[in-house]
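Question: what's this shape?

___
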Amino acid sequence: MAERDGDQVEMALIVADRFGLSPACLEPLITLCSADWHHAHEGVVSALGTLRSPASVRALQHLADWVPDYLHYDDSRAMGVKAVWALRRTPGPEAEEALWGLLASGSGDVREAAAKGLRSRGVSESEGT
């Protein structure tokens, strides 16, 4: 991250996927969520989804809402939907609150994923009204 080298970020995510992540990776991954100098945000989402930490909820919610310039072509909002699925697997009330927020404000695909995520947590959409 200090070198702001997107290729190194991608390589580090490949190594982490192969050999696993430690909790020490959490803060750097959260920092990478808002960095616009790399193109590995989907990999970051996957890594955060693996860690399943409530500390990553705000970062995942950001990635569910944000569309980096290099992903403007993706009308299906794959990164945003992946972020919602990571939130779905994250324990705690913060993750559920984030899903409710995305249900109210996300794009169509992200809203649909948030609704499915809430249902998978045993929460009815009518409970939020």
Observations:
- The longest helix spans residues 6-19.
- The CA atoms of residues 84 and 114 lie 6 Å apart.
- The mean pLDDT is 92.
- The chain has seven helices and no strands.
